[in-house]
Please model this.
Amino acid sequence: MEQIINTNAAQFYCVSDIQQILKIGRNSAYKLITANDFPSIQVGKRIIVPVDRFNNWVDNQLTGKGGVVNG
Model:
């Protein structure tokens, strides 16, 4: 069975999306995105974050299962 992707729903966040969601600055966003435990993907020069993996990462931060990134 072929999976249909809903193009109306965002599948990935970019760095500026992460900035807005977490209410952090640009430098903090890039530092976070390059952290080992953060779920980012580099595609060419672009860095993207899968929405579902980001949500899991946030949940892990809230439950204490993830590493904390200090700015």
Remarks:
- The mean pLDDT is 85.
- The CA atoms of residues 40 and 49 lie 5 Å apart.
- Helices lie at 15-22, 26-33, 51-63.
